[in-house]
Specification:
With about 200 residues, the chain is of the alpha/beta class. Helix content is about 55%, strand content about 10%. The protein has a five-stranded parallel β-sheet with strand order 2-1-3-4-5, with helices on both faces.
Length: about 200
């Protein structure tokens, strides 16, 4: 059975879980949907099943979504992650991106928007509020590694993967891997949007 699009919802509010589950059941992209309310249950499910996406509430009563995601990664989780929060906090959104998650959405958004975010992520895209993800160069420095910052600067200058590889003495494939990580962490999907994000930052 294909489990690539199986989804786990981690939220200790039963009505929220039920509403999201009902909405996702209408999506042709989503297969089986599971819902749990605690860190213990979440980790047990992640170990037992192969989820393509976990949807994590950041503010849980006994834990938080970030801790669960970190634990899941340590246990070998290879799927995607979408964080939910009732807060539209820039620090939370940047933390989600820095951890390598594929998206963040506010709980105040409609179920249709949450479903759209899930579908985009399952298709391989990211879903972050651009205006809240970054505000200045210091934030980029905190999100990207030193090597990723170097690759990013060359990408913004318009250099090709081949040119960057020659400058840094690494292969095209390695440059491509860095490029993918940079896009995921910053929530962009092209060099053009990356350049706009960087050039629009108030230094």
């Amino acid at each position: 059975m294909n489990t690539a699009n199986d989804v786990l919802i981690v939220d200790d509010h039963p009505m929220v879980c039920a509403a999201i589950k009902t909405a996702l059941n209408k999506s042709s992209l989503v297969n089986d949907i599971y819902a749990v309310a605690s860190q213990k249950s979440a980790i047990e499910h992640i170990k037992k099943y192969h989820f393509g996406l976990i949807i994590l509430d950041i503010e849980l009563e006994e834990s938080d979504g970030f801790s669960i995601y970190k634990r899941a990664l340590l246990d070998g989780y290879k799927g995607r992650a979408l964080f939910l929060s009732a807060k539209q906090d820039k620090h939370i959104i940047r933390t989600a991106a820095k951890l390598g998650a594929q998206g963040f959405i506010n709980k105040a958004e409609s179920l249709e928007d949450i479903t759209s975010a899930v579908e985009l992520i399952l298709r391989g895209f990211t879903f972050f509020p651009q205006e809240d993800l970054l505000i200045n160069e210091k934030d980029i420095d905190q999100i990207l590694t030193e090597r990723e910052l170097t690759v990013m600067s060359y990408l913004v200058e318009g250099l090709s993967n081949k040119d960057i590889g020659e400058k840094l003495f690494i292969s095209n494939k390695t440059v491509s891997t860095y490029k993918t990580k940079i896009f995921e962490k910053l929530g962009v999907d092209s060099v053009i949007s990356l350049a706009k994000l960087v050039n629009d930052d108030p230094y």
